[in-house]
Amino acid sequence: MPIGLLSNCAGVFVGGLIGTACGKYLTERMKEVLTMIFGVAAIANGIVSVIKVESMPPAILAVIVGTFLGELIQLEQRVKGGLHWILEKLPLSADHIDMDEYVTIVAIFCASGFGIYGVLMEGMSGESSILLSKAVMDLFTALIFAGTMGVAVSLAAVPQLVVFLLIFALSQLIVPLTTPELLNDFMGCGGILTIAAGLRVSKIRDIPIMNMLPALVFAMPFSSLWGMIF
């Protein structure tokens, strides 16, 4: 039973519901400040992940190649359009939702290096402490954003559950092929993406975070190739 995985997704869902209920009591100023604070917290978490990197060149190369591929196929526009279509089909009003911000939130929940690493560890060894700690962070993250965007934030738990279950199912195939160095470089690559997400949430820089996500696919192969060459 993937306790950590399910707890993490439940944290997003419950946090979104609580934030929706409490959002009407928050002023616009408070919502704006809390969002910026979360952005700063995301940048800090990303820095912690980047510090763990074993070799920075393959992590950076993965980000460059992955972003190029994402831009080539216009991944963010496709995801944004898909999410907007889904929200319109539900009894929700998607008009008041900032889709750029919503896409960033979905990316943070579903594709953070910290989260994927936690799923891999739970799938391989049953260690759930990483995802349990992430569940607490995601609960408050969802709470903050739901104050602005409403119950749609809770729905981000659905793609998160799908992505995490897929990774969990593949973990017993993936982890035996990895080394601590490969995992550290993967975490470092994920940390770069988390920093980018924090900059976007804080409205410091409008970085196309979804277009960067293919970098996670290239992180371990590039790290392995780098280790064989150097």
Automatic annotation (TrEMBL):
Keywords: Membrane, Transmembrane, Transmembrane helix. The chain crosses the membrane at residues 33-51, 58-75, 102-120, 140-170, 211-229. This is DUF554 domain-containing protein. The keyword Membrane applies. The lineage of its organism: Bacteria, Bacillati, Bacillota, Clostridia, Lachnospirales. It comes from the Bacteria.
